[in-house]
Amino acid sequence: MGENNNSNRTLVPEAADKLDKLKYETAAEEGINLKEGYNGDITARDAGKIGGNMVRKMIEYAEKNMKK
Fold it and tell me: Which PANTHER family does this one have (predicted)?
């Protein structure tokens, strides 16, 4: 219980740029205007749409690229 478990850290630092790009692409597809830097003014619903769709896309990518 004393462990510092930050769920917001990037496990693969080399992926940070690609995740950021995915975030902005997903937001644009949803019609949500994100700006560089702080976006604390967007609604929780919009943030959830972005995050949820990012996860969906990552799962689709993983499924397509898994060895059978």
Answer: SMALL, ACID-SOLUBLE SPORE PROTEIN A
